[in-house]
Amino acid sequence: MGLPIFDYLIAPWPKYFEIGEIIVNLIGYMPLGFIMISALPQRWIWKRRATATVLCAVLLSFCMETLQNFLPTRTSSNVDLAANSLGAFLGALVGVRWGQALFAPGRGLMYLRERYIADDGLTGDIALILIVLWVFVQLTPDQLLFAGGELRRLLDIAPPLPFEPNRLIVFETAQTASMMLAVGLFARCTLRTSSLVLVVGLLLLGMGARLLGSTFFFVPSSPLAWLTPGVQYGFLTGAVLLFIALRLPRVAQHALAGASLLMASVLINMMPESPYFLRNISGGPVIIRRANYPNFYALCRLVAAIWPFVALAYLSALGLWRGERFESGRSVV
């Protein structure tokens, strides 16, 4: 903008502002404060941990706001910096009280991780991150249920097949079923036990995130815009296939999860454009453009596009690692 890059730090209170955006900036940094103060050495007194947490959050926000001077569509703001800092401080205060109850070994989330996740250390952490990211991308309201790997839209490539109702239903059915099978078996490959409840719970959580996104991020609100005929058939087909697959040997489940990820990624890039998301038709639901949601939406779409390929790489590496560990243990015996 041609101004000194640090002038925003001494700018007066803006004439035009949105309370909602201030709240989003505040809430956005609360998890950082909560998690960071819980991760710092517990031998430090809480004031020292809180100070270190807030300073790191302030530094991060300062860098982010300053870099926005060089983005044509963004504006650096001392109000955002203050809101971020306050959010980290509030998160740190909550972390002092409840952080250890969640993250201490043998307690809270750590207890659940040790009980249900098959692999310890970094391997198990990556699995959890991928599962959380999958739920996260379900908040995008204008894509197929459980969809992922759509490189076509990311690269701005036209659909290879023209739209026909029956053709779209077949593609949606196959894509939904294969992705549902892939996600369910991926979760099974990361669990210690064959728990149908946990797998079903993950899929329901993904559906809940999609319902939430369609309710709040479409204008007008369209909670069930994603529940197309093809999705309904695909969900029923995927449920039957997953029920059968969960009774297969673990090695077969591992291989089937990878094959399903590949199948779903091919189908999503081959299928015709769906008319159910009427983003370009007057009167139909459109994605909201207020506050920071466009950036959040773009991030979700990017993560959704690459998620199946990262998950497939993880499954391949996990299979090699478990196979080598099995062979090593058998050779010792």
Features:
two-stranded antiparallel ribbon, 333 residues, 2 strands, disordered C terminus
Q: What helical percentage do the residues reach?
A: 55-70%
The DSSP helix count reads: 11
Name the shape in a single word. Answer: globular
Strand adjacency order, main sheet: 1-2
Secondary-structure element order, N to C: HHHHHHHHEHHEH
**Low-pLDDT ranges:** 278-282, 326-333
Largest sheet: 2 strands, antiparallel
Give Rg in angstroms.
Answer: 23 Å
What does this protein structure show overall?
With 333 residues, the chain is an all-alpha fold. It has 2 domains: 94 residues, no CATH class; 202 residues, no CATH class. The chain contains 11 helices and 2 strands. A two-stranded antiparallel sheet has the order 1-2.
Short characterization:
The protein is an all-alpha fold. It folds into two domains: 18-111, no CATH class; 117-318, no CATH class.
Draw up the topology in text:
Elements: H1 19-39, H2 46-67, H3 78-103, H4 108-116, H5 121-137, H6 151-154, H7 165-190, H8 196-216, E1 218-219, H9 229-245, H10 250-270, E2 286-287, H11 293-332
Antiparallel strand pairs: 1-2
